[in-house]
Amino acid sequence: MVEETAAEFLLRRRSTPLRMMRAPAPDRAELRAILTAGARVPDHGKLEPWRLVVLERPVLSRLAGQVEARGAELGLDPEAIAKAARDFADSPLAVAVIAAPRPSGKIPAIEQVLSAGAVCLSVLNAALARGWAGSWLTGWPVHDRPFAEGALGVVPGEFVAGLIHLGSADTAPPERPRPDLDSIIRWDGP
Question: What would the DSSP string read from start to end of 94-148?
């Protein structure tokens, strides 16, 4: 068997749409390995300006009901409510990455927020590299302060950087258009 290099993996990596995911999800030992790799991100000042909340199946089912109730309370479109609730109800496992910037005279808050985003991508890539299906999503519920505080324990000064949904898939995710590098790169040099 020929092993794929990290560079080859990054050139072919694709997220799996949540609608294509199913159980099983990584167990706690496997997830610990994924999260260990995911936490190895740039973190200037060693502030760890993020934390992780693992949402297992029973909690995700409960949160789906809370999404429905909160969406109705907010008077949101029933389709938007149903889609958001389905994301929680259908997910085999999710990791909420909470951005938690810390006061620092040296490390700007934006660098800390970018570190939390790096955790999201690193957790996702670590899971994909280990053969799991995964997708980084958010959605209106995690941006709703009362929901995020009550459901995920977000405190003032924190926010949800992403929900990393993990599970299995029977088929490869579809390819999607990728950026046209010539339209987004500017070369400055000789």
Answer: EEEEEE-----SSS-HHHHHHHHHHHHHHHHHHHHHTT-EEEEE--HHHHSHHHH
User: pLDDT tens-digit profile of 6-17?
Assistant: 889 888 899 999
For residue 188, tell me if it sits in a domain. Answer: no
Alpha carbons 22 and 57: distance in angstroms, whole number = 11
Among the listed residues 87, 77, 66, the one whose alpha carbon sits nearest the alpha carbon of residue 147 = 66
Domain that holds residue 50: 17-168
- Condensed to tens digits (0 to 9), the pLDDT of residues 40-61 reads 999 999 999 999 999 999 999 9
CATH number of the domain at 162, please: 3.40.109.10
User: Is 98 contained in some domain?
Assistant: yes
Lookup: tokens for 115 = 């570190």
CA dist 179 and 22 (Å) reads 29
> What is the sign, positive or negative, of the torsion defined by CA atoms of 126, 132, 137, 143?
negative
Residue type, 123: V
